[in-house]
Amino acid sequence: MSQREWIEKDFYKELGVSSGASQDEIKKAYRKLARDLHPDSNPGDTKAEERFKAVSEANAVLSDPAKRKEYDETRRLFAGGGGRGYGGGFTPGGGGGFSQEFNLGDIFGQPGGPGAGDGGLGDILGGLFNRGGRASSRPRRGADVETETTLGFREAAQGVTVPLRMTSPSPCTTCHGSGAKPGTSPRVCPHCNGAGVVSRNQGAFGFSEPCDDCRGTGSIIDDPCTDCAGTGIQNRTRTITVRIPPGVSDGQKIRLAGQGEAGLRGAPSGDLYVTVHVSQDKVFGRQGDDLTLVLPVSYAELVLGTTVSVPTLEGRVGVKVPPGTADGRILRVRGRGVPKRGPAGGAGDLLVTVKVAVPQALDADATEALKRYQEAEKASGFDPRAGWAGA
């Protein structure tokens, strides 16, 4: 595919969003389409598989603010005629328009050329195609891939290793990504000497365009691999073991370098980004690196004091409730929270909130004892509403 064909793709239309969509809108649209079109959900459906590849390609550009900006700027130049010949329709020599596809990164970015060093279209295309504005025969790096996984609260806090089953373009296992039949190797294209581009002059102008013999790859495969048709890529299902570090939070992304979509003919693979979702726990909550829990206690335990066994991530620990503790007080148990990331290590704290549990019914003896306590409390001069603003 030529650069111009690639640029003229409407990635916004692929994702079903407007050109002014926010990054969150793009992310939500991609996630929904990826779930609906994933090959695992549509076995044998080639149309769904092609759409899955298309939306993944669109997301790889639009989810990256820098690439999206370059893509938008380049499309605007094309819409204004900046991508046809020179000067939006001017044809050297007065002839008709050019029908061939040009290497636009070379036309506008070669040393001494019209776009050299001016930060114009050559720089934009150079960044968009990772070519630095110069011709390159290196095959394009594979696209990044995104997936999701859901962990239990304690798994996320303590760290866990999870297997992820994915269906995506991967290096061909027969030719190991070279595209050539086992026992053979690609040879350097004699027409372009491995550059992938050839130059031609049109009047006063010099142009570079992809080499027709090697289709811009710089190499020729005489005996293609039969399993991948010479591309070096197969769409296959694989299982990847992912180590989730301790303390990962809900919505955090884990990057696995080189585990994304395979590059063409042995080019580097893209990266895999795993978005982690964390389910809620019945006992624990979380505030940064601190764990939180609510401890039910009786009124007598608050007044007289007690020691209560509470759960932690590793087991249980005794928490001392001092006499006269107020309802709602937070007791801190240091070092019993979520493991901290970074070289410092350590862990957060366990924050225990005491909350009095009121009995819904009492027998006759308990009711009588409570009444006697109430009378004794009044006799001692205790007033629970002393100093209260509403008194």
Automatic annotation (TrEMBL):
* Keyword Cytoplasm in record: yes
Subcellular location(s): the record lists:
Cytoplasm
Where does the chain bind Zn(2+) 2? Answer: C189, C192, C211, C214
Q: Which InterPro entries match?
A: DnaJ, DnaJ_C, DnaJ_domain, DnaJ_domain_CS, HSP40/DnaJ_pept-bd, HSP_DnaJ_Cys-rich_dom, HSP_DnaJ_Cys-rich_dom_sf, J_dom_sf
- Keyword set includes Isomerase: no
Classification via Pfam families: DnaJ, DnaJ_C, DnaJ_CXXCXGXG
Gene3D superfamilies found in the cross-reference section: DnaJ domain, Heat shock protein DnaJ, cysteine-rich domain, Urease metallochaperone UreE, N-terminal domain
Question: Domain J: where?
Answer: 10-75
Cofactor, free-text remark? Binds 2 Zn(2+) ions per monomer.
Assembly and oligomerization: Homodimer.
Say which family it is in. Answer: Belongs to the DnaJ family.
Q: Which PANTHER family match?
A: CHAPERONE PROTEIN DNAJ 1, DNAJ HOMOLOG 1, MITOCHONDRIAL-RELATED
HAMAP family, alphabetized: DnaJ
Domains: entry comment: The J domain is necessary and sufficient to stimulate DnaK ATPase activity. Zinc center 1 plays an important role in the autonomous, DnaK-independent chaperone activity of DnaJ. Zinc center 2 is essential for interaction with DnaK and for DnaJ activity.
Annotated protein name in UniProt? Chaperone protein DnaJ
Gene (UniProt): dnaJ
